[in-house]
Amino acid sequence: MSFLHYLDEKRYFLIFFAGMLSFVALMMFVSPEGTYHAGDIAYTLFGCALLAAVYVTGGYFRWRSRGKMLQELVNNRWDELPAALPEPYNIA
What we know:
Elements: H1 3-9, H2 11-29, H3 38-76, H4 81-84
């Protein structure tokens, strides 16, 4: 799966994140004190977008490395497959 396909699967997260950024920008813009400047708002939005980009990119590389390992298991070692499967990603 390419990075664009991964982004397509993460579309709901990205839509939610865009909504949150819009809400934060709106609240900063209409604050009663009126002390936020355009640069402050842009700096905040850029920082949040950078953190989200790191999160999405890190998730892709984590998914990709696990996918490659599973693909190698399926392609090369059918007889050893049940014993060689990695532990699932879960909290419990």
